[in-house]
Amino acid sequence: MTRVFKMAAAAMATWLALLLLSLLPGGVQAFYVPGVAPMNFHQNSAVEIKAVKLTSSRTQLPYEYYSLPFCQPDKVVYKAENLGEVLRGDRIVNTLYSVLMTQDRKCEVVCAKLKLNVQQSKLVAERIQEEYYVHLIADNLPVATRLEFNPNIEAGAEDKEVVKDVQFEHGYRLGFTDNSKFYLHNHLSFIIYYHKEKLEEGEEHNYRVVRFEVVPQSVKVEDLKVADKGSCTLPEATNSAPQEIDPSKDNEVLFTYSVRWEESQVKWASRWDTYLTMSDVQIHWFSIVNSVVVVFFLSGILSMIIIRTLRKDIANYNREDDIEDTMEESGWKNVHGDVFRPPQYPMILSSLLGSGIQLFCMILIVIFVAMLGMLSPSSRGALMTTSCFLFMFMGVFGGYFAGRLYRTLKGHRWKKGAFCTATLYPAVVFCICFVLNCFIWGEHSSGAVPFTTMLALLCMWFGISMPLVYLGYYFGFRKQPYDNPVRTNQIPRQVPEQRWYMNKFVG
């Protein structure tokens, strides 16, 4: 049996090593995840516009794009998504926006007029009031709204002729409110930037999408002049009225869009730089490095002081002390002989430690892989997918340290301890997520995890994580227990009776 376990451990170690080696970048010079290649377009090639979801920072509940009465194609096709995209609430679906490379469109009608009943109008008004954003993608690049403001105007300065600061925000607002009235953005002006690849003479140019912007507008149906061929004419800004959504009655809405192409010098490998420098995802590296340096510096000083102070005391505790010296002790030194006494529930303590080691190893590898550029934002959902799988595979390390601690705490039932380590923390998290998921299901949000995905997570839990925890627990329990720095008294020190206000229930 021992030989079988050793062979299984060697095979698992080899498999994990190959997995980590496969995640390392090869000899090619690339910034994106291996396997993610640029999409080349020719002139007048179709660029598909897809919808992802609707999000709001107020409710934190994502919804599917077609949960609202938008123009739907005859056949709604959902993209095959990975585990991370499902857990994030992404539901990528096709739309009716027709976009051709380098071909501008002044004003096009998405579909015929939509008649919204009272229930649909109320739902749209509610989403507008909750400040929901609509997220679209073109060539896997998310849409962004340009925000321009003059800092001198904000400060009230006299010299206002300066270059405006430009910022971007993800998606575009579904609508806006004014004087308790709700207005819907029913016209979208797409601005798509492309980069032209230089090729040899006689070859057709390749175009690559490098930025996807949108300018949302609210235009009343009566002000949109629709022609027979599906084209329309936008009114002048001074004469147009916004499209109001009255939640107390039926409404008519007409969705339109326009497309403008602009050439850009930004190359495909750098097209995510604009999105990574957005205001809501900006990382203050100087503050982070400063905080880390201060924490490590103070921790080092404090550790040196504690080690120098305790080294002499620990040496004295390990000798046969006189009764007079023992009586002179005060404060926390009185309990030095009871600090390393096994607790009442050693199995639970070792299980929590094993889960902590499992999480720590997962976070460490995720950060390392992210530093190598393997978790690029172009691979949507890769971060969460990687975290889930790494947590499963790190069960072997969590089980090892939990098993060794359990033996140090005089534990004997290693099989039960391994089962507790593999199920305690994941079961608590799973139960909490399941209860919350029931409420999200009730709200019909896309953030609700489907039942099949929950079954897949359970299969991964019992099929991958639990066997690895048992494997690591077996070898950890066979190792020598940890040596305590001080001796433990045979007779436990009596805990004096506490005051009523020191009771744990009162505190």
Describe the structure.
- There is one protein chain.
- This protein has 507 residues and is an alpha+beta fold.
- The chain folds into three domains: 233 residues, no CATH class; 54 residues; 151 residues, no CATH class.
- 39% of the residues lie in helices and 17% in strands.
- The chain is built from twelve helices and 18 strands.
- Strands 1, 2, 5, 6 and 9 form a five-stranded antiparallel β-sheet that branches.
- A hairpin with a 2-residue loop joins strand 5 and strand 6.
- The chain is elongated and about 100 Å long.
- 24% of the residues are buried.
- The N terminus is likely disordered.
Q: Count up the helices.
A: 12
Shape: elongated
Instruction: Note the gap between the termini.
Output: 51 Å
Low-confidence stretches: 1-35, 153-163, 322-327
Overall average pLDDT: 81
Helical/strand content category: alpha+beta
> Major sheet: size, sense and barrel closure?
5 strands, antiparallel
Rg measurement, Å: 31 Å
- How much strand? 15-25%
- Element order, helices and strands? HEHEEEHEEEHEEEEEEEEEEEHHHHHHHH
Strands, count: 18
Helix content: 25-40%
Characteristic terms for this protein:
507 residues; alpha+beta; 3 domains; 5-stranded antiparallel beta sheet; 4-stranded mixed beta sheet; 18 strands; elongated; disordered N terminus
